Amino acid sequence: MEHSEINFLEVEENEIYEKHIKYIINECFKEENLDKKKLYINILLTTPQNIKKINKEQRNIDNETDVLSFPMFEKEEIKQIPDNQFDILGDIVISLEKVKEQSIEYGHSFERELSYMVVHGFYHLLGYDHINENDKEKMREKEENILNKLNIKR
């Protein structure tokens, strides 16, 4: 089953990005034993200006950012969703320009940074966060586990 739909807003459509993101998302679903569920994620690839606008409208934060996640369920509700129920897990918005900037800043590939943004957004949809140090450690461990399994290195 396809677990993601990729949309492009004011950025050039890119089949390579689309295939890569779908691959990453499918691996995330497998890792979290959600691959049998009829859940999907809507992913929007866009510009810094658009992500800033969405951030302002949805979160009342007037800043650009790299990734935004909008979950449809609370963490404990996800496992209770029946396998045959078709539903959206949530939305992820990614600024491709920020991905490019950060890949240069951190000294790794665009592919690695985009992969990280997708995995990071996915775990936010599952209810993970990085506000306090303990939660941040749990989230980082899950993110790194996926990236390592896929052999996506820094």
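That was protein one. Protein two is written in the same sequence-then-structure order:
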Amino acid sequence: MSSPVYLSHPSSLLHDTGEHPERASRIVAIERELERHDWFGMERVQAPRVAESALSAIHPVRYIRAIDELCAAGGGQIDADTFVVEASYEAALRAAGGAVELVDRLLTGVNPTGFSALRPPGHHAEAARAMGFCLFDNVAVAAQRALDEHGLERVLVLDWDVHHGNGTNDIFHASDRVLFVSIHQLPLYPGTGPAGDVGSGAGTGYTVNLPVGPGSGDATYLSLLEHVVTPLARAYAPQLILISAGFDAHREDPLAQIALTDAGFAAMTAIVRRLAAELEVPLGGVLEGGYALDALARSTAATLQVLTAASVPAAPGDVPLAREAAVALERLAQRWPQLSVPAR
């Protein structure tokens, strides 16, 4: 059996943001930790540049050209949080390319699971607007690739970054071909992702925002995944699951107030891995945020240890139903009658 794949590229280190929270040392910290674990046996592959046809399926060509030209001119500030240098365009092409290559490999059976660990991250990038450290929406480009080139009809994107993935949310807002589920702190940057944002048009009901308050920890997240995301995915029956894997919901992260632990990320991954096995669909992760370097490295390793394990993790005991999960089930059952609130 083939090994899980780890996609990376040196260009991620050349997107030089200095002491900005989203900095090159994030990748260095992750890979130093993975090396300690012998990369969990993953096949290491350099990410290709994304094809313009794949990128332009999400981002208008004029926007792609604008990022290219800004970088070619030496870079500059895009907004208060986001800036680029000359090497940033190449890094962004590889970050999107890594996510696309991951999908191609998963859907053709080259690798059973995998992780794309490149920067800049992507989930805040709107179709024609860079923001929140992000230039191109890597996971959205990859999900669209699965639909356009592999003939899939349904993709689940699970975003557990602590910040709402407003870009992915908006890109697929009117589509029923991508079920976008986001667990995120609210209020927090970018201020989007209320529970009442459920999509629009044909996509109504296929945007699922699960905001949680400051101080939420492992118990809340595991309950949402076990009692809300799992039955929702069973009802939707995706043909591919992609995780927008941010690690800034860790209790050590400086940019938010969520209290996840290393073990929490491992347990979350175990739930999603069991779900993918039950549905018999591929599962991969794409790196998003995470700004406490040690916590980022440990949490990524904890996630990949579970994602790449030879066997699917055994189910735990009963996961208590958190208040946030019960409220979400009551709300979602109006559009997803397959969901029900279990007795507490």
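The CA atoms of residues 121 and 288 lie 5 Å apart. Keep this in mind for the problem set.
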